[in-house]
Predict the structure.
Amino acid sequence: MKPTLLVLAAGMGSRYGGVKQIDAVGLHNETLLDFATYDAMRHGFGKVVYVIRKDIEKDFRERLFDRVARNFDAEYVFQTREGGLTSEQAKKAENRTKPWGTIHAVLSAEEAIKTPFAVINADDYYGSIAFETLGKHLSQMAVDGTEHAMVGFILGNTMSRSGTVSRAICTVKDDYLVSLKENTKIGYEGDKIISLLDGEKIELTGKEWVSMNFFGFSPKAYEEFHVYWENFLKDNLTSEKAEALLPEAASQIITNNHGKIKMYTSPENWFGMTYPEDRAIVKEEIAKKIASGYYPDTLWEK
């Protein structure tokens, strides 16, 4: 059974200042998502599902989707503010403009997910090794399997000099995740890496293993995601900023003894499109990978 790649591409891009998930960074106007989808395809994934906003559909099709769909089994679904809410809940949350977060995006795609699946962010570069690793795990997983997976990265390889980043720090024992703790503001202060957590500054070593939202699940994980989402809404329905986060829901699978998450690792350096200054860096890194033969000059046939 070939796994599915689920791409979370409905973010607002507030720090970037635009629709970063479809910004051109390749030699032929490819986006980061072109390279992620290509990596998934060549490592055994059978389909890609993109979660997007309705307002970017036209640009999304023109800049990415139509060319991918000519070469790979692809579809997209919408993440809307009202999705997953009753009419009464939607009315109470009518002042909400910000997306509900990554777990809400995953739930938006539930009907399109029929096989074990990997989840990625649209604006992060993960590298071929990570897709190969997770593809192997998922291809051997049953649709009701409970041994999920994650590819973690070394914190120091995932930092940006342009500003703070959000990372979930992993606690691992015997190659399995014990817990994930979301740190929403990690940045440099000089040469030090500092996390601002609950109003307290904590110095990190840079060697911690962190989640970049590159998880692998069986469809059974949706049972836990629904529980997490309903509990989230009880506490945050009227909030304009609170987000339902995938690492928190994944951690709940472990703490509730409803499954395990196998921890794999990748030595590759992250790069991504968090801030406007990042685009030039990403373009340069992609060009280097093409020049070295890591990627072909042209990813897709016309």
